[in-house]
Design goal:
Blueprint: H1 4-14, E1 18-23, H2 27-39, E2 43-49, H3 53-62, E3 69-70, H4 74-82, E4 87-89, H5 92-97, E5 103-106, H6 112-123, E6 127-130, H7 133-150, E7 154-156, H8 161-174, E8 178-186, H9 199-204, H10 209-216, H11 219-232, E9 245-251, H12 261-264, E10 270-278, E11 283-288, H13 292-300, E12 308-313, H14 322-332, E13 345-351, E14 369-375, H15 376-381, E15 394-395, E16 410-411, H16 417-428
Parallel strand pairs: 1-2, 1-5, 2-4, 3-4, 5-6, 6-7, 8-10, 9-10
Antiparallel strand pairs: 8-11, 11-12, 13-14, 15-16
């Protein structure tokens, strides 16, 4: 990754920038737009597509671009790019069809819309960098399969916890150690938080209440750890993960003792999280050394006597690191984090409160449901409803608070692309042996 900066500098000098088409214009999209336009040599934000075009224009303005051009055809977009103009549109297909766009950056934050965007990009043989852990955690394996069939790269971005964790995981493996746990450090976990309880926090940081609710109620971390499991071959120790709550300020170097040793000795390793450890906002990988020489040197280097060693990064800074993922794909076809050839974990749906027959399940980070990690095989065997498919489902029976919702409990719109992709995914990846 360190060579990326020099290669981008070279592209800048040659006036051959990586041309990015960004789809989505929300909170994170605003940040990455500023980063690409103002802080990343050798890269150009050529176009933004968003259903509300006003938001795309505002993103450009806040990044210093005062007169972007509205385009309605792919040829208009190609012409604007060739003339070094910045374009915007409400039609994401134009970015996917453009011969001048090198990378599609998917920042929609939506499952259904995001699925359409990714498939459209794949159909047009565009490499995709996505910031949509919810989509990847639900349908990543089948989207990766489609990308492979077309010979393009599909990856989630660096900066968010899954990408940062995967970078560290690769580093640990490269040192000859065995990762036994990929972990996430949380400051809060309360599955019953709602957009009402999180309204103040959302307003403070100019985010949507459902988004920050999904951070608090465990849905987001379930997706993040599912993404990591499906990219590494790891599993979960139990439904919902262990998630130990430790004394505030507990150093992450001491974290191994808070997880059952039997969970650290599995053949695959596990994904998990911890609440209350320091540094907040960081990620960690627990690894094991079996070689006497490695243990000697690791102890000498102040990592302790083992057998478990903690490697961590004390932050994840989201959009600041997305350009590196774009460059890795464009220059080396190196995905930051992408599913293996089989899913390991899925995020299932649990009731946030007592629910009544006929009630409609709402959005991620809403009032009706929260997500939990579960073994993929168990999800299929018990016909459990992935939370990524739960929105707008109508209950066919009463559901008690904390009860797991199955496909048998709901009426679901089978015409949605996300449902069709789910059926395709479980057909391609039936019960794992």
């Amino acid at each position: 990754m360190i060579i990326i900066d020099k290669e981008l500098e070279k592209l800048e000098k040659q006036n051959k920038p990586i041309r990015v088409g960004m789809i989505g214009a929300g909170f994170m999209a605003k940040g990455v737009a500023f980063q690409i336009i103002n802080k990343t040599p050798g890269m150009q934000l050529a176009a933004i597509a968003n259903r509300t075009t006003h938001n795309a224009v505002e993103i450009y303005k806040e990044s210093g671009i005062q007169n972007p051009t509205f385009i309605s055809t792919a040829s208009e977009l190609d012409n604007d790019i060739n003339n070094n103009k910045n374009a915007y549109t409400d039609n994401p297909s134009l970015l996917c069809e453009s011969s001048q766009i090198d990378i599609i950056l998917e920042m929609t934050g939506s499952l259904e819309y995001g699925a359409h965007v990714v498939l459209e990009a794949i159909k047009n043989k565009k490499n995709i960098v996505s910031f949509n852990a919810e989509l990847d955690g639900t349908l990543g394996p089948i989207l990766k399969h489609h990308a492979d069939q077309q010979g393009v790269t599909y990856t989630l971005a660096d900066g968010d916890q899954p990408g940062v964790t995967m970078n560290l995981y690769r580093q640990v493996v490269g040192m000859g150690l065995k990762p036994v746990l990929c972990g996430n450090i949380k400051g809060l976990h309360d599955p019953y938080r709602t957009p009402t309880t999180q309204q103040g926090f959302a307003q403070k940081w100019h985010q949507r209440p459902p988004m920050v609710t999904s951070f608090a109620d465990g849905t987001k971390i379930s997706f993040e750890q599912t993404v990591i499991a499906n990219a590494t071959g790891m599993k979960v120790a139990k439904r919902g993960m262990n998630g130990p709550v430790v004394p505030t300020g507990t150093l992450i170097e001491e974290i191994a003792k808070y997880f059952p040793e039997k969970d650290l000795e599995t053949s695959t390793g596990i994904v998990d999280y911890v609440v209350g450890a320091h540094p907040p906002g960081g990620i960690f990988v627990l690894a094991k050394a079996t070689d006497r020489s490695q243990k000697h040197y690791l102890n000498y280097y102040k990592l302790g006597p083992g057998p478990y060693y903690t490697f961590y990064i004390p932050y994840h800074i989201c959009h600041f690191e997305i350009p590196s993922s774009i460059a890795r794909v464009a220059l080396h076809k190196d995905p930051t984090i992408t599913p293996l050839n089989k899913p390991m974990v899925q995020v299932i749906t649990s009731a946030k409160k007592n629910l009544k027959k006929g009630e409609t399940l709402d959005y991620l980070g809403g009032y009706t449901t929260y997500g939990l990690c579960e073994d993929y095989n168990t999800t299929l065997q018990q016909n459990l409803l992935p939370i990524g498919l739960a929105e707008d489902c109508v209950l066919t029976k009463d559901i008690k608070k904390d009860e797991i919702i199955t496909f048998n409990d709901v009426e679901i719109d089978k015409n949605k692309l996300t449902y069709k992709l789910w059926e395709e995914q479980i057909k391609k990846y039936p019960l794992l042996k």
